[in-house]
Amino acid sequence: MHRWWVYLHLAGVFGFLISHGVSVAVTFRLRSERNPAKVQALLGLSSASLAGFYPSLALLLLGGVLAGFSGRWWGYGWIWWSIGLLLLVTVAMYAVARPHFARIRFITDAMVGGSQAVGEQEYGEALSAPRGMVIAGIGFVGLALILYLMLFKPSLGMAPEPAAAPPGPPAVTLAATETTFSSTSLVAPAGREFGLALQNRSPVPHNLSIRSGNEVLFTGVTFTGPRTVTYGVRSLAAGEYVFVCDLHPEQMTGSLVVQ
Question: Are 247 and 221 spatial neighbours (Cβ–Cβ below 8 Å)?
Fold first, then answer.
């Protein structure tokens, strides 16, 4: 089910970006628009986009939480920082954007209604106020930081301890460079615990998971190199499994034969 939860999370992300992208576009367009009727229409378009914004945000959070459980990520710092950043950015943008757009909407509605209380110069200053760029900056920086956390998954001082490896030399040794494992085929003993030594030879974070189909049987801690961590892998039944680096699943994967 893990891939389906990730799919659900990404579907929410795409919906969030599409709906929120309308408001971002409106923010930039307002800086150069001076026709009150067109400004009113743009503000209406931005408000209408919120119909998809909140359901997408809920889907994003639901998929992310479920993927966190199925991927066993809640012991890592990056997922907590991602959630914290998302909440912080949401609150900050609401606090900055709400009064900014409320003021523009109030002035625009008055001008469309024929009011002469606000002149063209004051109206232009309201539309091109620096607060609009602050709103966009908060959104772009927050999104970039969350994207970094999701892709690189740094521990940020919080990661589960590696499972204790059985005494003696590890039964399996594997090296990792930037985005490559030293081997795509490993052999391990069946019916007993074994040690799996992962040598991370680069400063790029890596880990190793063992899967059977969509079921995650083992997930090792993520760490940067140069460093070697020996995982203690519980007893596995004889058969063929898949091992993968969760941070680079497309490039770093292989077959584990237990016999």
Answer: no
Range of the domain at 217: 172-258
The pLDDT value recorded for residue 163 is: 66
pLDDT at residue 135 in the model? 86
Residues 234, 203 share a domain: yes
**What digits encode the pLDDT tens for the residues 99-118?**
888 888 888 888 888 777 77
Same domain, 12 and 135: yes
232: domain CATH number is: 2.60.40.420
Same domain? For 177 and 130 the reply is: no
DSSP state of 206: B
Distance CA 242, CA 255 (A): 5
Query: Which range (58-72, 147-161, 209-223) has the least confidence?
Result: 147-161
* pTM exceeds 0.90 for this model: no
Question: Residue 223 in contact with residue 206, Cβ under 8 Å?
Answer: yes
Q: Which amino acid does the sequence have at 134?
A: V
| Overall number of domains in the chain | 2
Same domain, 113 and 83: yes
Instruction: For residue 52, tell me if it sits in a domain.
Output: yes
C-alpha–C-alpha distance, residues 231 and 217, integer Å: 13
34 and 146: one domain? yes
On whether both 137 and 181 belong to a single domain, the answer is: no
> What pLDDT is stored for residue 255 in this prediction?
94
Q: Tell me: pLDDT of 77 over 70.
A: yes
Partners of residue 210 on adjacent β-strands: 218, 243
- Report helix angle 36-70 to 77-112, nearest 10: 160
Rg (CA), the chain: 25
Angle between helices 2-30 and 131-152 (to 10 degrees): 160
Average pLDDT over residues 217-228: 86
Backbone angles phi, psi at 243, to 5 degrees: -110, 145
